[in-house]
Amino acid sequence: MHAAYVARLIERLEARAAEIFLHPSTVVGRARGPNPGDLAALLGPAARGAIAARGFALATYADLEADA
To answer: What is the pTM of this model?
Structure first.
């Protein structure tokens, strides 16, 4: 994943809640890693800005169940 792609994805979301599945591992030898690009895309200002612009909040599954 790239930061710009993740930001565009967030900007286009129409759901109230969504899960974006990435593999942000930096550990060599993991089945889905290393993948520092995913980690950078998630932590970078483009994704954070898109989240803020849409008024979204980061949450856990427990947060979503409590809100249901």
So the answer is: 0.72
